[in-house]
Design a protein that fits this description.
Radius of gyration: 32 Å
Domain PucR C-terminal helix-turn-helix: 378-436
Number of domains: 3
Protein name: Transcriptional regulator
Shape: elongated
Family: Belongs to the CdaR family.
Helix content: 40-55%
CATH architecture of the largest domain: 2-Layer Sandwich
Number of helices: 15
Domain CdaR GGDEF-like: 188-325
Pfam family, one: GGDEF_2
């Protein structure tokens, strides 16, 4: 039989248990009220994404991040020590991109009760703007924390939508000015420099024009117009961010299928070309995907340096030519400086590729085709011979041929093409034909 006092003990235990439940629920409500209060204050103050992240780290001590849909960080908050720790986690690649493909979000994240990180999507209507993430090293996140993060994602969506609306207006105005600059319709150089300064741009320095053009022809594509517009917007945003991160005062804007930037160039010197191409190459690498951007194949052209706004239209034409010819020389995803075009610069001016094809056929004869497997080897032998100025010993070394083997090949080539070893005009013709054959689309 239960002891006389056991009923009282059970009642006390029940009351204590209920009290703990009530206290826990009260703590959850207090926590949710605190989250709502801070988020409302952030909204009313017109807070940016950085402000939102700062507010989140007061609620969830650690690190808060906002990323694009493909993982590029656009806002963050947290101590330097915490940021360094978080960026070293396995969910980030070597460039600092959050590997969103492997991270659970939304409902899946809510079910992870022992995780020290949680992520939710930032959605406005049907538009996915990225991810909002919190990292709390040493503290497991609860379902309630994830619900608070979802509320914060709504604030992030408001901030992003507001920024996009403002940026759209500013971007259109800036793009119109840059377009006028590229075609020489901005008045005097002094007026252009002053107007650019009012937009936060610096045109009063030595510059190169960089053009990044998508390789896909949007006028002839199976993609829907919405998909094309979305891809182009992402392409432009990736380039704008890459340029502004490196040079905040560099003019940059996107147009139908291209992005144009006026990047500063060193003040002359032997290393100017290499420095410019190294800088452009780093931005191209970021946009292509190492930093999570782009997602479209594109080719890039770089002009010669200019020292005056008046010379920008010429530099723009050079950059466009570098894009077009670079794509012919290297295929898609080419990166080409105008000075690197060489003879291709002249060949690209011939509008009828049928004429170029006929020239190749007449000059190379059967070697213009791949009817026999040996023709490709013979073309390579001819190319190296011409590149080494008919230095037989050097050609044999480069091709790993015995001297007599190369002599036999030279004799065979002269039987097919004529006495190119003694006729400089024929050598020039053959060299041009080989270059033309390498061009895409010919």
């Amino acid at each position: 039989m239960p002891s006389p006092g056991s009923g009282g003990d059970d009642s006390a235990a029940t009351v204590a248990s209920l009290r703990r439940v009530v206290e826990h629920q009260a703590e959850l409500l207090r926590r949710e009220d605190e989250v709502n209060r801070i988020l409302v204050q952030t909204v009313l103050a017109g807070g940016s994404l950085d402000d939102l992240c700062e507010a989140l780290v007061t609620l969830f001590p650690g690190v808060a991040l906002v990323t694009t849909t493909d993982g590029r960080t656009v806002a963050k908050a947290g101590s330097e020590e915490s940021l360094a720790h978080v960026m070293g986690l396995e969910c980030f690649d070597r460039t600092g991109r959050l590997i969103v493909e492997d991270e659970p979000v939304g409902v899946r994240a809510a079910g992870v009760t022992k995780s020290e990180r949680a992520m939710v999507r930032i959605v406005a209507g049907t538009s996915d703007h990225g991810l909002l993430a919190i990292f709390t090293p040493g503290r497991a996140l609860t379902t309630t924390d994830v619900h608070g993060l979802e509320r914060a994602a709504a604030v992030a969506a408001l901030a992003i939508t507001k920024d996009q609306a403002v940026s759209a207006v500013e971007g259109k105005y800036r793009a119109e000015f840059l377009r006028d600059t590229l075609v020489g319709r901005v008045g005097s150089p002094t007026e252009a420099v002053a107007h650019a300064a009012s937009l936060g741009w610096d045109l009063d320095r030595r510059m190169v024009v960089v053009v990044a053009e998508t390789d896909e022809d949007d006028a002839h594509t199976a993609r829907t117009s919405d998909e094309v517009r979305s891809l182009q917007d992402r392409f432009v945003r990736a380039w704008v961010q890459a340029v502004r991160t490196r040079e905040p005062k560099a003019p940059v804007a996107g147009f139908s299928q291209e992005v144009v930037a006026l990047m500063p160039a060193p003040c002359g010197g032997d290393g100017e070309h290499d420095a410019v191409m190294r800088s452009v190459g780093e931005m191209v690498k970021i946009v292509r995907g190492d930093g999570g951007g782009g997602r479209r194949s594109f080719s890039t052209g770089v002009s010669r340096p200019v020292d005056s706004v008046a010379d920008i239209p010429r530099a723009y034409s050079e950059a466009l030519r570098a894009v077009a010819v670079g794509r012919q020389m290297q295929g898609e995803s080419a990166v080409m400086h105008f000075d690197g075009l060489g003879i291709y610069r002249l060949l690209s001016l011939i509008p009828d590729t049928a004429d170029l094809r006929a020239f190749v056929d007449e000059a190379l004869g059967a070697l213009a085709t791949d009817d026999q497997a040996s023709y490709a080897d013979l073309r390579q032998t001819l190319q190296v011979l011409l590149d080494t100025n008919l230095n037989v010993a050097e050609t044999a070394r480069l091709l790993f041929f015995h001297y007599n083997t190369l002599r036999y090949r030279i004799a065979k080539l002269e039987q097919m093409l004529g006495p190119f070893t003694t006729d400089p005009q024929l050598r020039l013709t053959l060299a041009l034909a080989l270059r033309i054959r390498q061009m895409r689309g010919v």
